[in-house]
Write a structure and sequence with these properties.
Layout: H1 2-48, H2 51-63, H3 70-74, H4 78-92, E1 103-107, E2 110-114, H5 116-131, E3 137-144, E4 148-155, E5 158-159, H6 160-173, H7 179-182, H8 195-208, E6 220-228, E7 234-236, H9 240-247, E8 249-250
Parallel strand pairs: 5-8
Antiparallel strand pairs: 1-2, 3-4, 4-6, 6-7
Keywords: Signal
Protein name: Lipoprotein
């Protein structure tokens, strides 16, 4: 009887040792496979639900020319977004003084005709690239609501008066340049206002020659708005681009005066 009791006891102990090992083997093989995929989905979802994350990416499209997650955040692919940027400045070129007539630019020994479309296209291309030269900016405040988020940006942006001065200096440096000839296609009662058209043209020409835009010495702040969709993701609105471009410049010189 004693021997039999020992045998039974030994069998129970052996079974107890085997069962935990079998359990460990199951959890070791099945758990990692179940744990990896949900982590990726949660991380991506949280990124787009983070207004600061979305705003940082949007600003990188304007200031750095980057394109990461551009379609998720803007609803456009990179080429469509670039066209929207150019269109923003194209439509604003000559909004005060319409660019309706060509310019006749006299160089040393020859002249060239610049159509209104070419002037606006080159100006728009230049401005998109000038804003991409901004490298000093940061988000300093974020206010989120049920419908969206308002973010405050601090930036050392473009000094527009200084850029206009660069354009004037460029025209003065051209050998053979004749302002009266340049504006000869404009009606005589409109030539004084049309001087602004020459600046648009010169800004486009300067960029093609590798010009660097003058930046403000002191930072300014502006606000940009992001809307929230029904999934809780933040996206740029049709006004976000205007918020950023308008807030990233001042009609002043580098010293802010």
């Amino acid at each position: 009887m004693i021997k039999r009791t020992k045998l039974i006891t030994s069998s129970i102990v052996a079974a107890m040792l085997i069962l935990p090992l079998a359990g460990c083997g199951q959890s070791a093989t099945s758990q990692p496979a179940n744990a990896t995929q949900p982590t990726e989905k949660v991380e991506q979802k949280n990124n787009l639900q983070d207004s600061k994350y979305v705003a940082e990416h949007y600003l990188s499209y304007i200031y750095d020319g980057k394109t990461a997650q551009i379609e998720d955040i803007t609803g456009e692919d990179s080429s469509e977004f670039k066209e929207e940027q150019k269109e923003f400045f194209y439509n604003r070129a000559g909004s005060v003084t319409p660019i309706e007539y060509p310019l006749v630019i006299e160089y040393e020994g020859f002249s060239e005709l610049y159509t209104p479309e070419k002037i606006k296209d080159e100006y728009a291309t230049a401005m998109v690239n000038y804003f991409e030269q901004i490298d000093d900016y940061k988000i300093i405040d974020t206010e989120e609501s049920e419908d969206g988020a308002e973010l405050t940006i601090e930036v050392k942006g473009l000094a527009m008066n200084a850029l206009a001065n660069q354009a004037n200096s460029y025209m003065d440096s051209l050998i053979g340049f004749d302002q009266n000839l340049a504006l000869s296609k404009y009606p005589s009662d409109n030539t004084q206002k049309a001087n602004a058209v020459l600046q648009f043209w010169a800004m486009g020409e300067l960029f093609q020659q590798g010009n660097k835009a003058p930046m403000l010495n002191n930072s300014t702040t502006y606000t940009m708005y992001l809307e929230k969709d029904n999934k809780g993701n933040y996206q740029a609105t049709e006004d976000t681009m205007s918020d950023v471009y308008s807030g990233s410049k001042l009609d002043t010189y580098e010293d802010g005066k």
